[in-house]
Amino acid sequence: MATVHETLEASTRKNTILKSHDRYNESGAPLCDAFVIGIAGGSASGKTHVAHEIVRQLGAIPSVVIMSQDSFYKWNSPEQIALAFANEKDFDHPDSLDLDLFAKCLRDLKRNRQTNVPVYSFSLHQRLDETQYLYGAAIIIVEGILALHDSELRNLYDLKLFVQCDSDLMLARRIRRDVAERGRDVNGVIDQYLRFVKPSFDNFVQPSSRYADVILPPKENMEGINLVVEYIRRKLAERSSNLRERMALTERLLSHTSTPVPASSVKYDTSIESMQRAAEGLGVQLLPQTPQVRGIYTLLRDEKCSKEDFIFYADRLATILVEKAMEALPFEKSETTTPVEERVVGQRLAAKEVCGVTIIRWGGPLERGLQRVLRDIPLGSLLIQPEPNTSEPLLMHCMLPACVRERHRAEEAWVIVLGSQIGTGSTAFMTIRILLDHGVREDRIIFLTFLIARVGGIAVVRRAFPKVRIITGAVDNEVKEIWRMDGGGEGVKGQGKGRKDWKIEPGLGDIESRYF
């Protein structure tokens, strides 16, 4: 018998998620829902092949989820499991599927929310307790024999496909698949096909083809797939917003003028009073500029600072930032008994769910400070990287704590986000939007950062998410446009491969590289 790990691996193979990208405008609202494609057809007609071929041809498009109908079979009783092992249970009738849950999961994904898709084991003939977490698709491909049968599902599709295939070919493919992948014998597969699969195809599957926008032929269907792919590309092009570059030019966004005010033309001093005025105007919370804090920043800005000293003082500064963040968390009265048996009234943390989310590398230098102050805090991570050609943020990896992945818990959770600096603000913007998509309340997000630029995207972030608390230790002058070479370092556009980027000046340099 297959192990639980092997069962999970096999049963989630059809549900595939690739990378995601930012689909929001500067106000924080989604530009549009995800684009949903429904693919139906008979059993073993090639639906999964068509779905994966679409993904393959999309190539650099980094935001596709394939969601399979097979995940949504209902829980089976012991009696139903016995019938399934005897090949006497009908898995092809609409009643065998939890269509309400199917529609709910798809609706959440379409609306840019996370969902937890059930996992079904064909070798055990049972839905497992585990679920598969999915989030962040710009394109969702739904495939299943009954994908076009249910009206509620059809209403969620933007494009409906039906894969036509000869019955003999479908039977041959089904025998090969069920024997190789699901441990069935040939006689059982044929008996089940004649008793359940063929009648269901005639009564439910084939009739649903009338709802399809495109019917793909059984063979040589690449031309139809090519047309579908080009259609998807056009839809993605319509939603492109170039958000990062626009956030770097904050004045254009906020004033809606045709020509932004160059950051270099705005002069600031670096005095405590200047930083305090800037922080107040931007709506961010600035650490008290004590001699200790000012001294730490002086050491961190020094290019001659040793790696050991940089790590030590960065950890110290991170601890101070987290201690400041604790003031935003709810506390309640608590009685305790001292070692000399005296009762005293104190305070204890009242928040039931507190977790941290670090933006990989970018937030790494703050992790140790968080764990020093909040021991054993659940810590999740996001990997957000610039798209090679446009520098737009891409969500490459998403591993959030359980209290955020589960929506009913996310609504009660407090989340401390770790990011070393906010320049253009696009990564911070996307991180906050991801948490909101999961149901975290805006006023329960606390963003900690060593440094922000007063001329940059921070004003856009504050306008879009005014209830988010942003705590920083320093406010610097500007965000400067540079040309980032592919091999690392700065260069000149046209003199080697690279991309447009931005950096904070005077700044702390590449904080992550200096720390790690």
TrEMBL record:
Coiled coil: none annotated. CDD domains: UMPK. GO terms for biological process: CTP salvage; UMP salvage. It catalyses: cytidine + ATP = CMP + ADP + H(+); uridine + ATP = UMP + ADP + H(+). Residues 288-481 form the Phosphoribosyltransferase domain. Its EC number is 2.7.1.48. Gene3D superfamilies: 3.40.50.2020, P-loop containing nucleotide triphosphate hydrolases (3.40.50.300). Residues 36-217 form the Phosphoribulokinase/uridine kinase domain. It is an enzyme of class 2 (transferase). The keyword rRNA-binding does not apply. GO terms for molecular function: ATP binding; cytidine kinase activity; uridine kinase activity. Belongs to the uridine kinase family. This is Uridine kinase.
